[in-house]
Amino acid sequence: MMVQMKPTRDGYGEGLLYLVENNPNVIVMDADVAKSTRTEWIKQKHPDRFIDMGISEQDMVATAAGLALGGKIPFVSTYGVFLAGRAWDQIRTSVCYMDLNVKFGGAHGGLSVGPDGATHQALEEFALMRVLPNMALVVPADAVETKKATIAAASIPGPVYIRFGREPVPVITNEDSPFEIGKANLINDGKDVTIIANGQMVYQSMLAAEELNKQGVSAKVINLHTLKPIDEEIIMKAAKETGCIVTAEEHQIYGGLGSTVAEVVVKNYPVPMEFVGVKDTFGESGQPEELMEAYGLTWKDIVDAAFKAMSRK
Fold first, then answer.
1. Of the listed 14, 21, 57, 232, which one is catalytic?
2. Is the distance from CB of 166 to CB of 108 less than 8 angstroms?
């Protein structure tokens, strides 16, 4: 499968550029990592709409809350480990408690940050953000979808967290692909097993479906880009049609995509499930491709999980 490669963070930067040029209320904020988050593009072209708060994530979120109370739409941007982790109290109390219109760009998500190692590999933010009342959580599959998610976030009220990565990943959607926050997309239809993924694991799921097809297995692939609000309808329909589910995420298996899907499944239509993700461990330094393989986050691991899930029907 030949595809274009592009970092999802580029989509975030492109989305922000569109917003500052079309919405006078959008303000972009960063915590001294503007080059990495691509907010530098706004700083260069629209300096009057950019605020660098320095290495002060908690202060940045609190300041964003004040801007939101004044009618602005601040986009708060920094590495996901520092945003979702270090500033969690301010996100909870200063933003979510008052349901303020603040948007969060969590960069460098997942193991694929690579050599930066465990301290910079955000593997817990799905759980940390999903548990907060009023927070929407979006994990786009590629750069094109990240741009759409960024633009869409400005048009819905309340807090929104967008998770994106650093390394180039395959572009699997296009400008005409449907995108709506809270509405998952069916990538591939199938009848034997359902694979539900987000982020760059959607592409790995597509590769897994191709391999499964070669082995006579028909796999349904769903891009569940929005973890909250979750699309319960597509999950329940898939469970009924295929009778088993595999989830795939670049995140801890606890509290993330797998846990979210399992909550829907066990309540509505219980079927066997298998979980592909990081298994209760921290990451380490290494090349992104090596880390994804070492931690079991490849299409091969999804194929193995699919056969396990089908054997339990």
1. 57
2. yes
